Amino acid sequence: MTVVVVGAGPVGVTAALLLACRGLDVLVLDRHAEAHPLPRAVHLDDESLRVLQAAGVADAFAAVSRPMAGLRLLDGDGRTLAEFPRGAGEHGWPQGSMFSQPDLERVLRDALAAEPRARLRGGVEVLRVDGAGPVRLTVRDRDTGAEEELVADAVLGCDGARSTVRRQVGARMRDLGPGERWLVVDLVADAPLPVWPGVQQVCDAVRPATFMPVADDRYRAEFRLHEDEAVADLDLAGLLGRFGAAGCTVVRSAEYRYAAQVADRWRQGRVLLCGDAAHLTPPFIGQGLGLGLRDVHQLAWKLAAVLAGADDALLDTHQAERAPHARALVRLAVLLGRLMTGGGERAALVRRSVLSGVRRVPRVAAFATSSRTPPLRPGPLVRRSRVAPRSPVGALLPQPPVAGPRRLDDVLGPDWVVLSGGAPVPPDWPGRVLPVADLGSPELTRWLGRRSVLVRPDRIVAAAARR
Ligand SMILES: Cc1cc2nc3c(=O)[nH]c(=O)nc-3n(C[C@H](O)[C@H](O)[C@H](O)COP(=O)(O)OP(=O)(O)OC[C@H]3O[C@@H](n4cnc5c(N)ncnc54)[C@H](O)[C@@H]3O)c2cc1C
Question: Which fold has domain 375-467?
Answer without folding.
Answer: Glutaredoxin (3.40.30)
